[in-house]
């Protein structure tokens, strides 16, 4: 049996994300191989990291590959990974709870949003998130779940939530290995590159729904993240985009590696002044 | 007439497909004097569902907002879902107000 080394980066920040995208490309389509997931250099796990590890394990197993882990040298990171490893082989992924880090992970294969409700309830209770913020999170995750199941083509996605280290943000990540957003957009609109397609989606509110209603999902996401002073990251196709409303930084660019799939990371700002308690829309009450 | 959204939609209460099921049920029973939709403690939190189920009663079902206001009741809708539903309807009204005849004037 041949061997394939899949190298994991130090951490899953935007700077290192290309390593994950390359890992997906390396693993996809390979069969009957011993895959060595090399995490020796990894020193920090995050929601994106956990989603990718679980997704890559599934992707590898789908084609009868054997997986071996080379554990991180960093002791705490290795401990966390050991906890994750326990649930990785289990069908349906039972809840993952890491006491200190309060990480939650689910694999979702339908439009049933109950697992998302569970995640938000647990994380919300642990981090004392305001009810209004929990409602916002639910709304956005339901939107991302619908996108992953309806448009991805694989009808499955990974959802991971957690607050990591001393960060002031709680992250909610949704990952799928479907066709990717830019591929859908570029099949209908003329764009030179995936990153300009993503830019079109986020700035012009393009929709790939033809003759059907809707397609305003990302408009809603931007609206909520702007209001809560948060950040969101989109990695899909050949593009990566980062919108940091707390810093006023927005942009999308070409990824170094193409990625078949979509990863969206929503980072909600937990700084007290950024959590609106009594936000009210000025809308006519009809019902 | 009472409609139990949980029974009709089962585990999927967020997708457009689920919303369409509810809209079809509402339109099939529009002759009833009142249509009461129940969630029994569950939350929707989905723009897609509300838009497809209720918002599109105007555009696709040809109903006016006044008819809907009289006919449709949501006795156990959570405050956040009620806010979201109203937002979805307002968005549809804004969109339709730009056309003629509008659902308000019909």
Short description:
The complex is a heterodimer of chains A (287) and B (106). Chain A is α/β, with parallel strands linked by helices and 287 residues long. Chain A has 8 helices and 8 strands, in the order E-H-E-H-E-H-E-H-H-E-E-H-H-H-E-E.
From the structure provided, what is the oligomeric state, counting identical versus distinct chains? heterodimer
Overall geometric form of chain A: globular
Biggest interface, chains and residues, is:
A-B, 29 and 34 residues
| Unreliable spans of chain B | none
Number of domains of chain A: 1
The CATH topology of chain A corresponds to: Heat Shock Protein 90
Radius of gyration of chain B: 13 Å
| CATH level-two architecture of chain A | 2-Layer Sandwich
Cα distance, first to last residue of chain B? 26 Å
Q: What's the β-strand tally of chain B?
A: 3
How does this structure look, described?
The complex is a heterodimer of chains A (287) and B (106). With 287 residues, chain A is α/β, with parallel strands linked by helices. Chain A has one domain (3-274): Histidine kinase-like ATPase, C-terminal domain (Heat Shock Protein 90, 2-Layer Sandwich), CATH 3.30.565.10. Helix content of chain A is 36%, strand content 24%. Chain A is globular, with a radius of gyration of 19 Å. Chain A starts with a strand and ends in an 18-residue tail after the last strand. The mean pLDDT of chain A is 84. Chain B is mainly α and 106 residues long. Chain B has one domain (2-97). The longest helix of chain B has 19 residues, at 79-97. In chain B, 35% of the residues are buried. The interface between A and B is medium-sized, with 29 and 34 residues.
């Amino acid at each position: 049996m041949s061997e394939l080394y899949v190298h994991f980066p130090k951490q899953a920040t935007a700077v290192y994300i290309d390593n994950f995208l390359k890992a997906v490309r390396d693993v996809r389509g390979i069969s009957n191989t011993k895959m060595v997931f090399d995490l020796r250099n990894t020193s920090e796990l995050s929601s994106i990291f956990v989603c990718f590890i679980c997704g890559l394990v599934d992707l590898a197993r789908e084609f009868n590959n054997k997986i071996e882990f080379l554990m991180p040298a960093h002791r705490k990171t290795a401990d966390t990974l050991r906890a994750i490893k326990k649930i990785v082989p289990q069908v349906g992924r039972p809840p993952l709870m890491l006491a200190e880090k309060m990480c939650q992970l689910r694999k979702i294969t339908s439009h049933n949003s109950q697992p998302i409700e569970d995640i938000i309830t647990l994380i919300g209770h642990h981090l004392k998130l305001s009810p209004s913020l929990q409602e916002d999170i639910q709304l956005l995750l339901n939107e991302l779940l619908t996108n992953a199941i309806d448009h991805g083509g694989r009808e499955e996605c990974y959802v991971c939530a957690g607050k990591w280290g001393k960060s002031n943000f709680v992250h909610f990540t949704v990952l799928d290995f479907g066709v990717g957003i830019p591929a859908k957009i570029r099949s209908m609109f003329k764009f030179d590159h995936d990153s300009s397609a993503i830019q079109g989606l986020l700035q012009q509110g393009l929709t790939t729904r033809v003759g059907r209603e809707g397609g305003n999902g990302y408009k809603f996401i931007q609206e909520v993240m702007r209001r809560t002073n948060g950040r969101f990251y989109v990695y899909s196709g050949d593009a990566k985009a980062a919108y940091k409303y707390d810093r006023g930084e927005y942009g999308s660019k070409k990824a170094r590696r193409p990625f078949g799939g979509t990863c969206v990371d929503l980072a909600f700002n937990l700084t007290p002044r950024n959590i609106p308690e009594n936000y009210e829309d000025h809308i006519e009450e009809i019902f | 007439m009472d409609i139990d959204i949980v029974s009709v939609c089962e585990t999927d209460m967020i997708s457009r497909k689920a919303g369409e099921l509810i809209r079809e049920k509402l339109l099939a029973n529009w002759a009833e004097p009142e249509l009461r939709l129940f969630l029994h403690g569950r939350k929707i939190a989905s723009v897609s569902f509300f838009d497809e189920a209720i918002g599109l009663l105007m555009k696709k079902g040809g109903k006016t907002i006044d008819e809907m206001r009289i006919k449709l009741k949501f006795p156990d809708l959570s405050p956040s879902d009620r806010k979201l539903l109203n937002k979805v309807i307002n968005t549809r009204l804004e969109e339709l107000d730009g056309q003629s005849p509008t659902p308000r004037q019909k």
